[in-house]
Specification:
alpha+beta; 191 residues
Length: 191
């Protein structure tokens, strides 16, 4: 019977450092860190792809800040220069992607912590470019596909509101797909 094979010791079969819980497998087990990056980068790529398909914005992905010198790096820097839209001021939208464990508290906490972390970057860009409207957002998708309600804000800021449903479904799909890769290495470790 399968439940009789459960070891008395509940340590992670991969890292042997923490209890092997779902949250540990998906976001804490260091042996899975290459998968974390792939899961995260897939969401960044999805957003970048949608921006390039549906807007005329200049998109910088996972690069040093293009507007000021800073050690902080956001995942997406989206620049809407005023010469393209014949407006008085340009817009810069900074978006950082997070994939925390699936619960509303974690999604909200990641959003708030990220905004606090990157606020100095946003302020530095605004000070260096006074005729530019600079905004900062976190795009948060849970490891099992939870959609953070505030994700509509960054999509609206970069003119992707009408693609919200597609992006929500795709980001949930990709996170679930990557998270399924985390299970196998944990379950198939020899005792």
């Amino acid at each position: 019977q399968p439940w009789q094979n459960i070891p008395a010791e509940r340590l992670c079969r991969r890292c042997k450092k923490e209890d092997e819980t779902l949250a540990h497998m998906l976001v804490c087990c260091l042996s899975m860190s290459p998968y974390w990056r792939c899961r995260h980068d897939t969401i960044v790529f999805l957003l970048e792809q949608q921006l390039r398909l549906h807007t005329d914005a200049i998109v910088y992905t996972n690069q040093e800040c293009q507007f000021v010198k800073s050690p902080l790096r956001v995942d997406l820097q989206v620049h809407f220069p005023n010469w393209r839209w014949k407006t008085k001021s340009a817009r810069i939208v900074l978006i950082d992607v997070k994939c925390p464990f699936n619960n509303e508290f974690n999604l909200k906490t990641q959003d708030e912590n990220n905004i606090d972390k990157y606020k100095p970057l946003r302020d530095a860009i605004a000070a260096a470019h006074p005729n530019t409207h600079v905004s900062l957002y976190t795009f948060v998708v849970g490891t099992l596909g939870s959609w953070y309600v505030k994700n509509a804000d960054p999509l609206a800021a970069v003119s992707l509101s009408k693609h919200l449903n597609f992006i929500a479904v795709q980001s949930a799909y990709y996170n679930i797909k990557w998270s399924s890769h985390f299970r196998e290495p944990h379950l198939n470790v020899a005792p």
